[in-house]
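Re: [ENG-882] Designed sequences occasionally contain unexpected residues at chain ends

Forwarding the minimal case from QA. Structure tokens:
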């Protein structure tokens, strides 16, 4: 690999996409500097071989809304149907072989922040590991990863997985000074609010170990981005020092999320998006400390294009909020903004702690990460 460092300066303002009336872009985007020695693959994993294509598999039988328990057999069928439809292959095994080979070291980027009610489902994660094994990737070459060890410990995937799978995080807990799990040579630099540490570094696991990454986000509301799905899970979940992007009512997530996702080698190695929409969070995300804001879309989305999937996610979250009588994720009315210690986020769905930036999805599209125009997204619906 060519290790000669290159520095790409990104002046974000000229990259503003047209938001087609959905939200006004911020006027003061920060300057973001990407530092990486990795070159993109001939065909980067994002948007991958299926730009603008999403397979949506739904099943009323997938989750019991009274207990919130998922049906393992139904989920496995949903997974097989989705993978076959995405790839055009006759069997799940053939479909998985489109993305991995036995020599790969595969990372599965889970989302544990919504514990206990909305995390990357055990059934989905276990089925991915099972199918990787069938495709020749042994458990010892599979890594379940997240940024924070305390969140992984709470979710506890180990009992659901075969021996040999590594479950690993970069830090012990959120917002602690622990940088040993990050690559000092691969980062995005930006001074957003005059913070002391202006770098967000990529996890060493991503830059130095993994050859393929499978992204398994949830369908969740987010107070700074509007919704958190494929893009934010892979970006904020693979870099350090990202909570600094939103503070005191203002969010720089509009350009920061997509920029992080575009950094090599993360962009090239993230080859598959499997969005867990069995359960969702319509307010108070990315957490789910109360079941009060949990709902049940009962679907799984498949694709290689994170932008296309997240564009559909925006509608899922916004429609549910409207159904519940809450303000839209696109609401930028100063009258809706209440800057405090965050308690009002759980208390009142008609209060914004931070002006949200759902336009981060279209911005990511402008960086070439996928298709953001909903009219150009091809959706294949499957009922199980």
């Amino acid at each position: 690999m060519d290790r000669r460092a290159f520095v790409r300066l990104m002046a974000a303002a000229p990259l503003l996409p047209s938001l087609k009336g959905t939200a006004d872009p911020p006027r003061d985007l920060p300057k973001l500097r990407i530092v990486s020695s990795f070159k993109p693959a001939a065909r980067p994993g994002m948007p991958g071989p299926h730009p603008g294509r999403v397979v949506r598999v739904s099943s009323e039988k997938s989750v019991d809304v009274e207990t919130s328990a998922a049906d393992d057999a139904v989920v496995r069928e949903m997974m097989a149907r989705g993978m076959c439809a995405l790839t055009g292959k006759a069997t799940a095994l053939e479909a998985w072989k489109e993305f991995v080979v036995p020599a790969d070291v595969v990372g599965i980027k889970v989302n544990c922040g919504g514990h206990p009610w909305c995390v990357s489902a055990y059934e989905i994660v276990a089925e991915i590991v099972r199918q990787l094994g069938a495709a020749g990737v042994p458990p010892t070459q599979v890594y379940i990863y997240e940024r924070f060890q305390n969140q992984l410990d709470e979710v506890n995937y180990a009992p659901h997985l075969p021996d040999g799978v590594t479950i690993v995080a970069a830090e012990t807990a959120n917002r602690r000074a622990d940088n040993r799990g990050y690559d000092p040579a691969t980062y995005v630099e930006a001074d957003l609010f005059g913070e002391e540490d202006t770098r967000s570094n990529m996890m060493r696991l991503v830059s130095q170990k993994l050859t393929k990454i499978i992204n398994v986000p949830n369908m969740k509301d987010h107070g700074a981005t509007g919704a958190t799905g494929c893009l934010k899970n892979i970006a904020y979940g693979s870099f350090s020092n990202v909570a600094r992007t939103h503070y005191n009512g203002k969010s720089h997530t509009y350009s920061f999320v997509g920029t992080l996702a575009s950094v090599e080698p993360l962009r090239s190695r993230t080859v598959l998006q499997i969005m867990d929409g069995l359960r969702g969070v319509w307010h108070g995300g990315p957490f789910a400390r109360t079941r009060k804001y949990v709902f049940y879309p009962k679907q799984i989305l498949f694709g290689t294009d994170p932008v296309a999937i997240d564009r559909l996610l925006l509608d899922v979250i916004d429609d549910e909020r409207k159904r519940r009588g809450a303000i839209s994720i696109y609401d930028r009315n100063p009258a809706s903004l209440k800057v405090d210690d965050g308690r009002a986020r759980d208390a009142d769905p008609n209060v914004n702690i931070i002006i949200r930036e759902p336009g981060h999805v279209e911005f990511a599209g402008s960086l070439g990460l996928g298709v953001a125009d909903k009219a150009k997204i091809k959706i294949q619906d499957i009922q199980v």
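QA comment: On inspection the terminal residues look reasonable. The mean pLDDT is 91. Proposing we downgrade this to a documentation issue.
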